[in-house]
What we know:
Layout: E1 9-17, E2 24-29, E3 35-40, E4 44-49, E5 54-61, E6 66-72, E7 77-82, E8 87-91, E9 96-101, E10 108-114, E11 119-124, E12 128-133, E13 139-144, E14 150-156, E15 161-166, E16 170-175, E17 181-186, E18 192-197, E19 203-208, E20 212-217, E21 222-228, E22 234-239, E23 245-250, E24 255-259, E25 265-269, E26 281-286, E27 292-297, E28 302-309
Antiparallel strand pairs: 1-28, 2-3, 3-4, 4-5, 6-7, 7-8, 8-9, 10-11, 11-12, 12-13, 14-15, 15-16, 16-17, 18-19, 19-20, 20-21, 22-23, 23-24, 24-25, 26-27, 27-28
Amino acid sequence: METIHKISIDVKHITTLTGHSGCVYAMDKGFSEHTVFTGGSDRCIALWNLETLQAEKFSAALPAPIYTICHIPEKNILLAGTTTGSIHILDLEKKEEIKILQHHQAPVFDIQYSLETNCFYTAGGDGNFAVCDLDTLSLIKMKKLSQKKVRSIDFNYTTSEIAVALGDCNILVFDLHTLDHKKDFIAHELAANVVRYSPDGKFLLTGGRDAHLSVWDVGNYELLKSIPAHNWAIYDIVFNPDATLFATASRDKTIKIWDAKTYQLLKRITKENFEAHTHSVNKLIWSTYHNYLVSVGDDRMVMVREVHIK
């Protein structure tokens, strides 16, 4: 029988970055592995340097609160989805807004892009899922997926699939290139908030408003595990750079770090035992720079932690 050794980790709080005047909902990687973009209810996009632990001389002000940010370095553009359904496209070289898309009639919850298809994809609170061309920045296709919200999008390049989380508890899986329907299944008792494929493409992790973390076999999308991971809704799931760990973020104010092989809980990051968020944790990035785990939340904070495997 194979002996399973439990991973032991250390988590060190590096700094708390302040500057946002409202809840921070959105985050994406910046110009390098040691920078990140953030945005939120104060309608501003900021750029933070994880090396200097300071804000960079970059800012963008939008007319509505920001729910999602997508940096596309290959095109040198930044996309920001707002509560009004608008998507603002910023040219980072010219430092100006070059286009506004209004395909959604409700908040935009997620924007993801694929160089393989040369498209970006948007998830709306109106139940619509939109596909746009990366070169023309124009709409190619709009699909009505639900009467509820479309919350999250992720790609599996191993199987050429795209998974979408819906507010009606369902997960939909499409062919990445044709968008033909491949699979749908009820994933949670309450809204499905986030989908995240494992880096090897073998598993799909989902988080719901029911506070459960579910693990699905990508071969047939059968449920392997359903873990009561948090006390409130799970808002994000992110793997570390070498895919040995993953973290979950929740409305219950906590971040939890898990073994990506055994799905054992390794560390709870809460106010009781760490410098931690005092309100909902909304978004995570796990950077290759010093293995920093960066989180943002309703408390207006950007927190940086170093995670070390012993």
